[in-house]
Amino acid sequence: MNASEQAKGLDVATKIAAIVNLFKSQFPDAKADLKPWRNDPDTQDLVDPQSIDIGFHFPGWSRRVQSRSILVQIRFHLDPVEQTKRIIGIETVGFNHQGEAWKLSTIENWQLIGNYKPVADVEEKLKYFCRQVFEVFNSIQKNPST
Question: For the range 118-126, what are the long-range contacts, defined as Cβ-Cβ under 8 Å and sequence gap of 24 or more?
């Protein structure tokens, strides 16, 4: 779900801002997009309501990153009994003019896969960023709407 729609309280809004700053500390040229998903019915059917999705766009195609845009999806599990939300993983996907170029998932062994992979130091920056995001969300949220 678009990060702008998930920022319903000060705690989540602050964490989203921290994530943007963490990403920009690794990739200073990137511009954050808190609404990477369109608001049409077909797109909304594909959106995970338990995720925070942020797009990052580079000024042009980046040879080192092998993409023009990166979608970051922070996935959560909502425990309906305890009303807690816990981070379960992060998926980052790089896009070029042909579509998906590569994917890094912390859910799937932290391996970067794809036809157009970024250079090794960029892969390490992405993994470092993901570890930092886990630190931002390491506390349990008692109220998922905040």
Answer: 118/64, 118/65, 118/66, 118/67, 118/94, 119/64, 119/66, 121/64, 122/64, 122/65, 125/26, 125/27, 126/26, 126/92
111 within domain boundaries: yes
Q: What's the total number of domains in the chain?
A: 1
Q: Is residue 141 part of a domain?
A: no
Provide the whole-model pTM.
Answer: 0.85
In a domain, 74, yes or no: yes
- Domain hosting 32: range is 3-136
Q: Residue 16 domain-assigned?
A: yes
Over the stretch 2-36, which tens digit does the pLDDT of each residue have?
A: 676 777 778 888 999 999 999 999 999 999 999 88
Query: Residues 70-116: pLDDT tens digits?
Result: 999 999 888 777 777 789 999 999 999 999 999 999 987 899 999 99
d(Cα 84, Cα 77) in Å, to the nearest integer? 8
